[in-house]
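Example S7 (structure tokens).
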């Protein structure tokens, strides 16, 4: 039987755990509320543009020719914006569904990375940036991934590197194989690294020589709907979902993603995925 002191101690610990769980829930709730408020704001802008263009066309049925074509183009662009936001919300929601099954295939990493890189080289959006591919010499690494989702992660990182840099900036995709090391958390006996000795990780980095991220913003970049100070500058598009999606996809593959950055110098995003 437990003594009175032990019971009191257990009660104190249970209370502490309950209040921590409560705080976590509160934080998640605040994050969710902020996400909804930001997203409804982002959805409203293209909706307003569409509504007023339709109203204009109804009021002035005489509009024809070049002006009519320009208004249709504007509506088309706004519809594309809406679709892009809805796709991102849908993907983020799906990635957080614990029952989601990824369409994994076992494959060599190099062809996947090369194909992605060459498609960016051929993409006119990247004109004005210097794209570099830096794969470890003779690299061979098999991974078991959902290729479409991994390409989505790389694409989000490349589009960010483009968006948050200026003409002439370099964007480098590099990859190498590293040994997996289990970090010692300081509790209990130090684990023998032997069981993991043969396990490898594929380390992929996307480095840019762009604007960089301030030390205040850096801890928040993977949060849903977070946008840094500079990215709120008019003219720079985005909804703060790309990195949250990248993190979610990487973690669903049993991997990890991190960012290092120096303001004014550039950023490097690193993904580590388990090799087969
Ligand atoms: N390569 C980068 N260089 C500088 N800042 C970056 C970089 N990548 C991300 N950031 C900062 O992190 C924020 C979050 O990035 P994220 O990709 O999640 O959203 P976004 O680019 O603003 O919008 P979205 O990707 O949804 O279109 C950005 O708004 C920007 O402030
Ligand atoms: Mg982005």
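Recovered sequence:
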């Amino acid at each position: 039987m437990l003594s009175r002191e032990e019971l009191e101690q257990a009660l104190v610990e249970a209370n502490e755990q309950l209040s921590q769980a409560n705080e976590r829930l509160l934080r998640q709730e605040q994050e969710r509320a902020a996400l909804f408020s930001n997203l409804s704001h982002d959805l409203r802008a293209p909706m307003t543009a569409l509504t007023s263009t339709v109203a204009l066309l109804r009021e002035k049925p005489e509009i024809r020719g070049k002006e009519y074509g320009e208004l249709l183009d504007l509506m088309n662009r706004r519809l594309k914006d809406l679709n892009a936001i809805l796709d991102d919300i849908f993907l983020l929601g799906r990635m957080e569904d614990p029952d989601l099954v990824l369409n994994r295939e076992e494959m060599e990493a190099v062809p996947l990375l090369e194909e992605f890189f060459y498609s960016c080289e051929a993409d006119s959006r990247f004109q004005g940036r210097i794209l570099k591919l830096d794969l470890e010499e003779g690299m061979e690494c098999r991974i078991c991934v959902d290729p479409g989702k991994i390409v989505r992660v790389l694409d989000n990182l490349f589009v960010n590197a483009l968006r948050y840099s200026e003409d002439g900036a370099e964007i480098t995709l590099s990859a190498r194989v590293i040994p997996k090391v289990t970090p010692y958390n300081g509790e209990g006996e130090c684990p023998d690294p032997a069981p993991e000795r043969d396990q490898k990780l594929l380390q992929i980095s996307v480095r840019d020589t762009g604007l960089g991220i301030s030390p205040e913003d850096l801890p928040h970049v993977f949060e849903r709907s977070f946008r840094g100070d500079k990215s709120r500058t008019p003219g720079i598009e985005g909804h703060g979902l790309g990195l949250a999606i990248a993190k979610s996809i990487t973690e669903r593959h049993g991997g990890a993603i991190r960012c290092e950055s120096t303001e004014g110098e550039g950023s490097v995003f690193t993904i580590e995925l388990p090799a087969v």
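Notes on this example. The longest helix spans residues 4-59.
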